[in-house]
Amino acid sequence: MRFEASPSGQACWPDREDLSVEFVRLLASAQEGGAAVAECLMVASRIDFDDDDSWYLEWKRIADTNAGRGDAALRDGNLSTARSNWLRAIGYYQAAAFQLEAADSKRHAVIESMRRCATSFLQHRDRPGEVVSIPWLSDYPLEAYFLPPRGTAGRAPAVICIGEPGQRKEEFLHKMARHADERGMALLAIDLFGAGAGDAFEDIVGRRDLETAISHVMDYLVERHDVDERRVAILGDGGSSSFVARGIAFDDRFAAAVCDGGIWDLQERAFLHDRVGHFNASLSTASRNIRCPVLIPAGERGWLKPERARQLYEVLRTEHSDVTLKIFKADETAAMQGHADNPTLANEYIFDWIAAHLRNSPT
């Protein structure tokens, strides 16, 4: 198996689409500090697909190198260099864990190394962040990273960043934190794994009430003395499920939301009707109850075709007028699912939209 560049310019292994997508994600994260292009290309050249452990070993190797450089830079008092290396290590550890089974001890070790780098980054940030625990289920609290904005005193607007079930919060430290900080917003990066390596996650992810986590997260934020509870937005990264939309539907404390707006619920409902030859989907109760402004970002090369996204969007607008659909076209990039090919372009648009709506929210 050989490493190639496709005609569209996306580096890939022709026989491994899953690894190709993960590699594109890593390359795209370089512009936000989550990787280095030269290191990614070097690792790609070393991977031996005849060895099942090669992917894991090579990414762990470069992750350990960056983590070690970060620790050494800290000892020498070079905090900026330390933070940069820890962020890259987080991206590489995430890649190393990509193929590993949930119960694999190697995966647990990699995740713990990634979490150590994240904690080091938070502790040595210009304005230190916090690792916080948020009550949810009786025996399953959520873990989050809270990053206050630099240069802002008093109560600041805040954005909650949460990914699809199975997506880890650590990548938000390079993917989202800068965009929030530059706009004077606090960032709460959270996932559904709980604390540690997430051993109980497989039991949790099958629950039908994942959306109940959203109100618990909001409960935590409104009690903080440094957050303006009237100016809190939520960003559901990835947008291929509706649990965030369901979460905000019955909680009117949000000033703005970036999520699928219920499109995926609509798509599933429409699928059952489409068999008779026409589109005849109705809005769910959750979709009807969303009251805050909603942005639905999508990519032209995402899982949902643009024409289908527009069709579902028009259905949403029949009940919710303050909803915006933004489709990133292939010729501008940010067009893959989750904007994996260019998260910077998408996040510039998204965070500008959030900032505008938080500025205009009632005080």
Task: Write up this protein.
With 363 residues, the chain is α/β, with parallel strands linked by helices. It has two domains: 1-124, de novo design (two linked rop proteins); 126-363, Rossmann fold, CATH 3.40.50. 44% of the residues lie in helices and 16% in strands. It contains 14 helices and ten strands. An eight-stranded mixed β-sheet has the order 3-4-6-5-7-8-9-10, with helices on both faces. Helix 3 packs antiparallel against helix 4 (79-97) and helix 4 (79-97) runs antiparallel to helix 5 (105-123). The protein is globular and about 55 Å long. The mean pLDDT is 89.
Q: Would you summarize the structure shown here?
A:
The chain is α/β, with parallel strands linked by helices.
Lay out the secondary structure.
Elements: E1 4-5, E2 11-12, H1 17-29, H2 37-46, H3 54-75, H4 79-97, H5 105-123, E3 130-137, E4 140-147, E5 156-163, H6 172-175, H7 177-182, E6 186-190, H8 201-204, H9 212-222, E7 227-237, H10 243-249, E8 256-258, H11 263-274, H12 285-289, E9 294-299, H13 306-317, E10 323-328, H14 343-359
Parallel strand pairs: 5-6, 5-7, 7-8, 8-9, 9-10
Antiparallel strand pairs: 1-2, 3-4, 4-6
The CATH architecture assignment of the largest domain turns out to be 3-Layer(aba) Sandwich
**How many domains would you count in the coordinates?**
2
Identify the CATH homologous superfamily of the largest domain. Answer: Alpha/Beta hydrolase fold, catalytic domain
What overall form do the CA principal axes indicate? globular
Radius of gyration: 20 Å
Helix fraction bin: 40-55%
Number of helices: 14
Structural class, by secondary structure, is alpha/beta
How much strand content do the residues show? 15-25%
Roughly what is the average pLDDT, rounded to an integer? 89
Let me know the largest β-sheet: 8 strands, mixed
Count of DSSP strands: 10
Strands across the major sheet, in which order?
3-4-6-5-7-8-9-10
Which class of the largest domain in CATH terms?
A: Alpha Beta
Unreliable stretches, pLDDT < 50, 5 or more residues?
none
**Looking at CATH, which topology of the largest domain would you report?**
Rossmann fold
User: What is the succession of H and E elements?
Assistant: EEHHHHHEEEHHEHHEHEHHEHEH
CA(first)-CA(last) distance: 59 Å
